[in-house]
Each structure stands twice: as C-alpha cells, then as structure tokens.
Amino acid sequence: MAQMQTMMQAAQQDRKVHIPNMLTMGRIVLAIVFVILLSSVSAPTMTADATLGERIGQLSSGSTTILIISAAIFIIAALTDALDGHLARKWKAESKFGRIMDPFADKILILGGFVMLSGPNFVSPLISGSSIQLSAVSGWMVVAMIARELLVTSIRGVYEGEGVDFSAGAMGKAKMILQSVTIPVILLLIAFTSPGPESGERTIIVLLVWATVVVTLLSGLPYIGKALQHTIDENARMLEIMRGKKARKPTKSTNVPGAKPRPKSNKGGQSKKRR
User: Residue 84: which of 62, 67, 106 has the closest Cα?
Assistant: First the structure.
C-alpha cells in the first residue's frame, strides 16, 4: 500500500514537471499560427479625412476576421506565458527545457508580431496617392527591439554561467506587459476602426508603439549596468590577487643570530692559486 502511494506521488510530481513545459510548447505552436495568420492580412484603402462612420468596416470581412482571431490567439498565448511560469514556481518544477524554450516562445510571439506589423500587409494606400502604415510600426523599431533581445540574451548566457543573477526586474516585466497589450490592441483597432490619418485611433496606436519601443530599449539598461559592474568587480578582484602575489615574494635571510656563514664555493670558477 505504501509503495503504491509512493508511486502515485511520483506520477503526480512527474505531471507537475511536464505541465509547464507542455504549456510552453503550446505557446510556440500558437505563435507560429499567429504569424501565419498575420501574413495573410490585406490592408484597406482609406481617404485622408475619413469620418468615423466611413472608417468602420473598411477592411474586408476576411481580413477583419483574421485580425480578430489573431488577437485572440495572441491573448491566449500571452496568458499561457504567465500560467506556466506561475505553475513552475509554485510546484518547483523549473527545468532546463523550460529555461531555454520559455524565452524562445516569447521571442517568436512578440518579435514575430512586431515584424509582421511592420510589414507590407499593414501598409494602406490612400486615395490621395500616398500610403500609411496602419500599425505605426517602422522597420527600425523592430531592429532596435531585436538588437535589445540579442544583447540581453548574450549577457545572460555569459554571466549567469558565472553565477550572476540576471532574472527579470521591474523594467523587464513592464516591457513584457506593455508588449503583450500593444499588439492585440493594434490588431483590434485596425479590425474595427481602420485608423486613418489624424484619427483618434491612430493617435492611440502611435502612442502605444512609441511607449513600447522606449520601454523595451530602457529595460535593457539594467542588464548592461549589472554586467559592467560585475566586470569591474572581477577586474578589481584579480588586481588584488596579483598585488598579493607580488607582496609575498621570498626574501633572503642574512645575519641570523647563531647561524654559521656558508663557505664560498669555487665550483664552476677558476682557482686563484698560482702555479
């Protein structure tokens, strides 16, 4: 009976270990579906001074449906991110697989979303002959965010191997929350309002995008600062060690009381006797 109970507890613990990892893998699948859906969106043609009534429903019904489904998939995927982290900490089921794949899934979802939002599928031609990026996401913004992620990932990989704690701080969490809010809000505003130039919806999108970019870049500064401080401390420690070694050089002991003087040896020299 005791053996069976032990086996049941072991099986339950095994399930606890696998559930967060299964949620992570599910988020990767959702992220891939999310990116594929956004690649099939087509932007509408808008007038420069469209009224609210004219802006509503300007997207084709097919694109509107895709945008709504994409926003729903993104929200579900973001919720699984919060859930698997919570369960892993609660059950103490953190694993190397989760430490690798969890941030990987996040990067596909977030960066994949911004890459697609900056693409031609969200460029809308205007009747005046010009065009507008409905998402307000420019290519350089995506490059800056990707550069931040690559730099922080590299710093973590190097310094966490030396035992330095690089867990996400307040700025990192704020960045993740803001990114997770900005993407679905943009998709839903485009789906339901088709934000044109100088519209209120356009202003909301622009403010959200710029806030996300600024917070994303600023959130990388604490990691850089911690890495620099650790490097300075390590260099100072090595310098102290080197100075200590120089100070402990052996010295010759001369004129010791009671010690007999050593006779000089002529070994290897020439005899001074006259022949």
Answer: 106
